[in-house]
Design a protein that fits this description.
This protein is of the alpha/beta class. The chain is 42% helix and 20% strand. The N and C termini lie far apart (66 Å).
Length: 322
């Protein structure tokens, strides 16, 4: 079994366009010994419009841009790239690989070439599984630093080489080999065929998504329960009480802690106070701590901030049990 690590650089990337200017790859054996490495440079047949991942200009590739006009167009190297990635005895890998696979997809469509057809793995996804963090994507530089790997960014072959070294370091840290790493976390490779791309998946990712779905369901259930109470009792508040003129708003995590929030709201209504779901309309904002969009909105409207503990003390002081 051989491993093919690859990385792509583009002259420009838009929603339906990715003009490839460099295809870098490293081929190794199953012990990560390098058998071949190359930076295949291409004429992107278009201007360079380079942006970073936030869409801001300023990204610089370590190439002389004028030289790209001397290189062949994508169709000329397509058969070579296709044979490299679709070979029967290789495992294809990259970093955030689905992006590079999409670039290949867009270029094949651009030049009306047959779709690529291969399975691929993603070292970024391996790392997410190994650290159990599926809500945050770590860049190649961050992974390299965490695993003690050095590299020069944005030269395609160097990024491919760094990706290989990161994978090797992760495998060593996990005290296994690459197939063992894949089996340990139940990783299923992504795939491209017929211009359709499916992303990698894993057992841990599936559990993460299921847990997130449960949390969202619980949140929405608690949110609905709280506002049913708000709407049911908002017109039954005490007139002329000690909280008359006070308009309260809770942070969302306070609202959805239903036993506590309903108890405090009962005392607020009992003291003549009112409640609003809009922080910009309140004059008392209640949260466990300062910060967040709702907090800033309330502060800009001139609201007073109270911690949950301070509100409970205030309500206790007026004779309410909270």
């Amino acid at each position: 079994m051989r491993y093919v690590f690859f990385d792509i650089e583009c002259a420009c990337v838009f929603k339906y366009t990715a003009k490839i200017c460099a295809f870098g790859y490293v081929v190794t054996d199953d012990k990560f010994e390098v058998l071949e490495r190359e930076d295949i440079l291409l004429n992107p047949k278009g201007k360079f419009h380079l942006t970073d991942r936030k869409g801001q200009e300023g990204l610089v590739l370590p190439y002389e841009y004028e030289d790209f006009k001397k290189y062949p167009l994508f169709p000329a190297v397509y058969p070579r790239i296709k044979s490299l990635l679709e070979a029967k005895d290789v495992l294809v890998l990259g970093h955030a690989t689905i992006n590079d696979v999409n670039y290949l997809n867009l270029e094949t469509k651009r030049y009306k070439l047959p779709s690529f057809r291969f399975q691929f793995h993603d070292t970024q996804f391996f790392y997410m599984n190994a650290v159990g963090e599926y809500g945050h994507q770590v860049g190649l530089g961050g992974m390299a630093e965490a695993l003690g790997v050095e590299f020069t960014p944005h030269r395609a072959v160097d990024d491919a080489y760094a990706t290989m070294r990161v994978c090797e370091a992760l495998v060593k840290r996990e005290e296994t080999d690459l197939p063992g790493l894949i089996n340990r976390y139940g990783v299923k490779g992504g795939r491209v065929a017929g211009y359709r791309i499916s992303p990698p998946s894993s057992r841990g990712q599936k559990e993460y998504y299921e847990e997130r779905a449960r949390e969202r369901e619980e949140y929405h259930r608690a949110h609905e329960e709280f506002y049913r109470y708000v709407n049911k009792y908002m017109h039954r508040r005490r007139k002329g009480g000690p909280l008359d003129g006070k308009v309260f708003c809770f942070a969302k995590d306070v609202e959805t802690d239903v036993p506590m929030s309903v108890t405090m709201l009962t005392a607020i209504y009992g003291g003549g106070g009112r409640y609003t779901s809009h922080p910009s309309d309140c004059n008392v904002y209640v949260a466990r701590e300062k910060g967040g969009v709702r907090f800033e909105s309330a502060m800009q409207a001139g609201a007073e901030f109270l911690s949950v503990g301070e509100l409970r003390e205030m309500l206790d002081g007026q004779g309410a049990v909270v």
